[in-house]
Each structure stands twice: as C-alpha cells, then as structure tokens.
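Translate sequence into structure tokens.
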Amino acid sequence: MDDAEVGAFLEECKTLQVSTLDARGAPHLTTVWFAWHNGTFLFETYGKSQKVVNLRRDPRIAVLCEKGETYDQLRGASVQGWAEIVDAGERLLELMKLVVQRNHAGMTFDQLARIAGEMAEKRVVIVVVPDKIISWDHRKVAR
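Result follows.
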C-alpha cells in the first residue's frame, strides 16, 4: 500500500497489536484501541502497565494492524518504531482526548474533556513514531 492507502486503512482499524520488550528481551504482546494522528499511533494505558514498564527501559516498539477473514482479503500494516510516554500536563490531556474521541464517538466536548481528565489521572498516552512501515493488501493480488 502507498502512504495514502496505509493512512486510510489505519482509520478503518479499531485494534492494534503492540509488542514491547521485557527485561529478558522477550516480546510482550498486547492489544489496544488506538488513534492514528499526524503520522503517529496514539494509545492509552495504565501508567504502571507492563507495556509502560518495558518502554521506560527500552523505547523500541512494534505494532500491527490487520484485517481480513480469508487469504485473498488479508491486508495490514506492521510498524517498527520508537515510543514516547506522555504522562503529565496539557499534552497528555490533548492526546488522551484524541484517543477517547476516536474510540468513543458521539461524545460532547464536555463529556470528552471530563472522561479524558479522569483517565489521565492513572493513565498515560504512548506516542509511537514509526521508523519503518511494512504493508500488504492481498485484495490487489486477487484482482
């Protein structure tokens, strides 16, 4: 997929597979809801989660978004990159609002601000800056 196709595809996806490295260097794999914003992935998680513990030690991260029920419909984007942990301040609130808004449509501005504020008390936002994106779309091959 080209850059525009990858961006459109990521807007369709709801979940993101996230891989961090534990203290032994083994992959730690989880699933999160996310937002794709200005060429970065954003997701929120508890500040004391294993993902965050791992990322504080080693900011390398890999994420995967995929769709398709049959082989000829498989498509996805696999990303290697670097994680930034945003754990305080106005930037945390603004990024939290983006993640909440993307995954809980239909909220008023006041609801969004209240929920994002409550979440920011115990949660952080991880900003994933892609270093390498690998994508595929088997629907193109099937044609």
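Note: The two ends are 15 Å apart (CA to CA).
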